[in-house]
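Recall that a protein's primary structure is simply its ordered list of amino acids. Everything else, from secondary elements to tertiary packing, is in principle encoded there. The following example makes that idea concrete.
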Amino acid sequence: MAGGALKYRHLGRKSSHRQALLRNLVTSLFEHESISTTWPKAKEAQRLAEKLITLGKRNTQAARNKAQAVFYKPVELMPKLFNELRERYLSRPGGYTRVLRIEPLKEDQAPSAILELVDGPRDMRFAMTAKTLVKERATEEGVRDLTARNIIKVTRYREGGQEELERTVRTLESRERDEERRKQGAIRRKVYPVKDKETGKYIRMNK
């Protein structure tokens, strides 16, 4: 309709190519749980991914037929959608995916983004919240209100979310301590050249 609102992005492709592109993006998303692409493609693929997860939660034969028509790898991804992902998002009312802006990936500086499934093993906001928590707990000010709100967001619908976040924080803290010990060890093992009295040649000696 002339003058009407844009219902979807055409992505510079005709209908059949656009659908093939989105099917490919969504197949990769459900296979790897996180993909990088341009911002417009991520937003359009997000719409299709949300619909697929809704179909997975319905778990009817009609829903299975619709989902199978989308995936390029239905044998691998249909069981994942109707079992693992269905259980993961059963209590979540919506918002199964997340789009995060990132620096442009290509030379043309096109706006880029990461599209990911939330509450999964590659949930970037969960990882970023854990890293921030490690840094803020080490300061005198403690955990900020913004971080506290993010903790609630990333753990609310995640099964065992609080416990998993604490495990991740402890792992990161342990890595930081190990890295600090390695740095201190490298300083102590600094190598200085020493001249051998017999040969007159310089040799390497640890301090």
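The longest strand covers residues 97-102. The chain is about 55% helix and 15% strand.
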